[in-house]
Design a protein that fits this description.
Blueprint: E1 2-10, E2 21-30, E3 39-46, H1 68-81, E4 89-95, H2 103-114, E5 118-125, E6 143-147, H3 162-169, H4 176-191, E7 196-200, H5 213-217, E8 222-227, E9 240-242, E10 245-247, H6 256-275, E11 281-286, E12 294-299, E13 306-315, E14 323-327, E15 331-334, E16 341-349, E17 361-363
Helix pairs in contact: 1-6, 4-6
The structure holds zinc ion.
Amino acid sequence: MTATLDTWTLQPDGRRVDKPANMGNVMATLKGTDPTDDRVFIVQGHMDSRVTNVMNRESDAPGANDDGSGTAAVIELCRVMSKSSFPATIIFVTLTGEEQGLLGAEHLSERAIKEKWNLEAVLNNDIMGSNNSSDTRIIDNTRLRVFSEGLPSSLLKDTTGRIGQIQRFGNENDGKARTLARYLKEIGERYVENLEVVMVYRNDRYLRGGDHTPYVQRGFAAVRMTEMNENYEHQHQDLRTENGTEFGDYPKFMDFEYLRKNTAVNLATLANLAKSPTVPQKVTVDVRNLTNATVLYWQAPQAGKVKGYYVLMRETYWPFWQKKFFTTKLGMTLPYSKDNYYFAVQAVSEDGNEGLPVLPVPNLR
Ligand SMILES: [Zn+2]
């Protein structure tokens, strides 16, 4: 593992950067051991914090939860995962300038484009360690939200007809981010006790932004992990007491057992992904004939020892994969109609680590 400080300078932008600023993302890279596996996985949080006025650079802004929680998660994942090695590369990042306009994530996601990283997944952790809500006063540390966009925002300006294909075949719910969210739910719940991963079918909450968004806008699979219930008395607040209510993002409002579980969801997901084979190539569903079977075929991944493949299946209205079929071959015929289900294929390593599922492209002629 190597640690670097990725620095750059920003000029005033007329918005939340009011004078020239020296920026720096803190990064640790756990280089993959397989030279033929060029995949990169990012786990990140942001280390800046704020009070009520985002331009206030004087007042104390402890930021224990927003986003000390995500920052602590990233550092702990670094500590734990640096003792192991993985075929693929994992980058652990604490980003700067989130509150000033997602500046650190804009910089890093643009760098991933320029340097042509094979960036397969981004796990963004922001506000993930407090268990209770303002207003409704719910207390719950057994559920974690994962926000994922549906129709990929990177396709909004696409002119190649891909949106038309998505509409025609009903794949609005199977973008890269949503596929990653499903994966995260399955693996997180497999390994972490007393925690439900709740998929939220939108990119982010109302009125709020996050450091996964610059990635999804550039076409990467990126999701936001956030606690189930938010307390707005503690977020973005000047430290003060009013009418008996204490405002401010203090460590005493945290639930560290909840933060541990949410961090463990990241750990399970990252380890499973980084140990898996790369994705199967040219995954295709044969739709040339009117039959009540489904014929899928694909090619082997470019890297990784493959034990076999899972063909995943779900009802078109179902949120996550319902059935798995294992095969060691490069194709499968199933007695289920391709009209009635969604399918995907994922490669599995000798140790049972599954890669990201790939949706088949219809073979129309
Ligand atoms: Zn935040």
